[in-house]
Design a protein that fits this description.
Elements (H helix, E strand, L loop, with lengths): L1 H8 L1 H6 L1 H4 L4 H8 L4 H18 L5 H19 L4 H16 L4 H17 L3 H11 L7 H13 L3 H14 L3 H18 L4 H13 L9 H20 L5 H15 L7 H8 L5
Amino acid sequence: MSAVDKVLADENTAIAAADALQILDEDFFRAVKARGDDAKAWLARFSKVMDIVASLPGFAEADQLGAIGSKLQAVKTINGAIPAGVARAANARVAAALAERQIPYVRSGIINAVLPIYDLLGQNEQAYKVVQGELTHTATPYYYKTDLGELAEGLGRKDEALKWYADGFAEAQGPATRFQWGAIYASSLLRLEPDDGAKIGTVTAQVLGELDGPDRIYRRARMRLEKLDVALRKWNTDTKGAHHDVLVNLRERMQQICGKIPKTETAHASCDAFLASA
């Protein structure tokens, strides 16, 4: 925290480090709040920097919106609520950004930036409508379908959420993307349909099949595989081992993939570790 304080002490330095400051999360802001009276002064400095970043033309619009989201998170966590005036200003900025016409990759960055703002303002129903409206304006609608799944899940619409997650996986293109979207779908089944062991086993086996090929268990894929491992084991533990057979079958499916990876490659160890305890 002291390092962040030093950065915020100099406005120009803080603006230059805006990307790093935007990574600060709710846990960090809780720690600031615990500082008592000093928290308000800290929040004022942080908010000023984020306001500057949100208006500087040198920053991409998605980064400007990210600064607004960071400010809202800090304000909500430290003060307990977002003032109506601050909320109105954020809504106006989001509306203006969405009203513009951007090239696809810029547009997707803006959508990614406005979703946390909607969430902080308690406007996820509006976020759902916005994202749904993007489906007809993109060549890769599956990118948005996981967002729709998460929003529907948060709004308590389980069946709708599962359909979006399934559609996203079905439409995803490219091995790395298909595994990523597939892991998201499999994880959603563990949360939303935990009693359907047969479906979870079938879908997860299909998802693991996306790793069957050269150079596929690295970086993000490796991390997602580890998270899927944790989620599956927790699912089985929570039911006192009722789904042990599913895990064994998935372990065997993964071993078929591992056997094709030379033991000298780091990917082999990551592959072999999947559900090793099963």
